[in-house]
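Table S2 (text version). Query chain:
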Amino acid sequence: MSSPPPPPPPPPPPPPPVGPEVLAPVVSTDTIVALATPAGTSAIAVIRASGPACAELVAALFPPSPPLPRRATHVDYHDVAGKLLDDVLVTWFRGPRSYTGEDSLEIACHGNPLIAQLILADLFQRGCRPAEAGEFTRRAFLNGRIDLSQAEAVMDLIHARSERALAAANQQLRGSLGRHLATLTDALLLVLARIEAYIDFPDEDLPDEDRRIVADELASVLRGTNQLLATSRYGELLREGIKTVIIGEPNAGKSSLLNRLVGRDRALVSPEPGTTRDFIEELIIIGPHALRLIDTAGLNPTPGAIEKLGIDKTLERAAEADLFLWVQDATLPSPALPPEIAARLTPANAIILRNKTDLLERPTSNIERPTSNVQGPASNAQPNPMQGTDGEAAHSMLDVGCSMFDVRREASLSISALTGAGFDELSSAITTLADALAQMTGDELIAINARHADALRRALDCLTAAQLKLSSVAPTELLASDLRGALDALGEIAGKIDNERMLDHLFATFCIGK
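Corresponding structure-token output:
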């Protein structure tokens, strides 16, 4: 009797996925612990732990009936020697339904630093170790709870300086950037699959129909990548503040304006012209925006040697400015500006302020409006921030000696830095200009950071190279290589590419306990 035929060989393993490699969840072998609230005396201090020993800790710390998961429970905390340290509120979470994806524990004790240190010391005795900077969020990323862009959004949320920065961080934390990247990546994977279908047949070229489809899809991905990259400048403004430079002649009231906006006497004010010879910078909040307000030396047309040094610094700050506040003395004729500054001013980035209206016998009314707003081609698409703002913005038609403005005879705001007149209108005008700097991607506020921008530029380089190869009928292997390069670059943003050094650098910027 013949023996039965041998069983068929097992099927070959599936090929690796095309595109960025997704990191596998990491199983931690140790349990970390740290203070999650700022050091110092407070009403409450929160200690958090994460790792495989958390369930055992809860059972050992709070016998005979340990608290149930996901329920805040008021219990006494005894150390390993049985000594009562505090009555605390305990909440613990079973992984993966926790911030880190692991079993986690949060202990809210009274905010005496001594109590917090005693509890931490007891947890160290029980086998926990101190957490490193950003280690909780790093574990959340490595365990797939969040992608890398969401991990960065945690820090943006903590350090947001304005409502708009807070909104952008919240949207990124909820995956807005990741969704846009996934759309681009999915489209690229389809293109790559279409291309690679012909790699095994070097004698066959892409059919014209497939070539047209690939060209259209590549163009769409390029547009989407460029749209994301365009938000990098606004992301910098959200994180650093909008550079708003105060310019004008000596004794026009620039320092008084700074003091009024800051709310305190930050700059020295004197009737003597040329008091400010270096720039002064302050962070202020106007509406939903953070502004880096910079007071500069007066633009004296006949400066002395020391004044000239101050004016040189004014020109440097003006070259980097996002917005300008041009302060003029309302009791004097409108001055001219140095050509280096005049060339930069447009209705989209500058507000003209006629200051010292309290000295006029008949101050310009803050409800006057010009009958028309004549604008040149450079500003056709930009709204006038001094038209239609809250509180009926101030207007007076001026001939300002600046080549960018005198063709349009732009409206200005009448203010008094001494009395505060016109400052509600000024705040509205600044908010309007700052709003126009925002880069919306669909209905979402996207504000990428420098790391994202670098990866997007590399992706664009690869996509542009792929377009050129497609149009020149280059071998499909070369085209596929460029597409993989673009996928790798996009994957870096969400952390789909394993780069231990980059992760170490990123999470080192986090605080302990986050």
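Notes on Table S2: The chain is about 40% helix and 15% strand. Confidence is low (pLDDT under 50) at residues 4-24, 365-409.
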